[in-house]
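Section 3.1: Structural characterization of target chains.
Under the original work plan, the team committed to producing a structural model for every single-chain target entering the pipeline before any wet-lab resources were allocated. The record below documents one such target. The sequence was received from the expression subgroup and is listed exactly as submitted; it comprises 124 residues.
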Amino acid sequence: MMQGFVNESEEAIIAVVVRNGTKLRSVDAVIDTGFTGFLSLPISMIDALGLAWSYRDRGTLGDGSETLFDIYEGTVIWDGKIQAIEINAADTEPLLGMRILQGYRLQLDNVPGGLVKIEILPDR
């Protein structure tokens, strides 16, 4: 099980360790249920980790507009295991998407300082 917290802006936050070889960075990411990818990071973090560019993809933003995203190859430590994922470059704070949460239960107490819990579903 992984745990996080709800911040003062009522955003659910979870720490994720992003890895590239020996470079590690712990990132506090906002859980975004409208984001269908794995993880998005600012390009400055992607550059600092030296992640490899993979391809460009079109995505739809929350306001309905479409944009192109550069996708990078990355590795995270997720639920105690190393997992290869795609990381979107975005000019926002780090966002954790629904794809990485597939097969997991998300629970949160939506008050500032509330507990966020992510645990694998029993049948997984």
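Residues 73 and 86 are 5 Å apart (CA to CA).
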